[in-house]
Amino acid sequence: MGSSYRADLRRGHVPEWEKPLREAVVLIQGVIKDSWDCLQDESQFDNAADDGAMRALLGVAVELIERELPKEKP
Q: Which residues of 45-72 are buried (b: 16+ CB within 10 A; e: fewer)?
């Protein structure tokens, strides 16, 4: 029986999926950073809890994606 696509991805055998997933992580991290920068710039602290919740969920998304990717070589 062959391995699953997930196992292949984790082993680095699906570079055509790995590359866009790594790019997605970078894009999501950019949104997290930009949303924090906007909060600081505009002093919109009344919405801070909602914005913080969004950033937290985006952080979870990054963690979930990174968990499926092969470890990067140093």
A: eeeeeebeeebeeeeeebeeeeeebeee
The single-letter code of the amino acid at 27 is: L
Domain count, the chain: 1
Range of the domain at 57: 15-68
pLDDT of 61 above 90: yes
At residue 42, does pLDDT exceed 60?
no
Is 2 domain-assigned? no
Residue 7 belongs to a domain: no
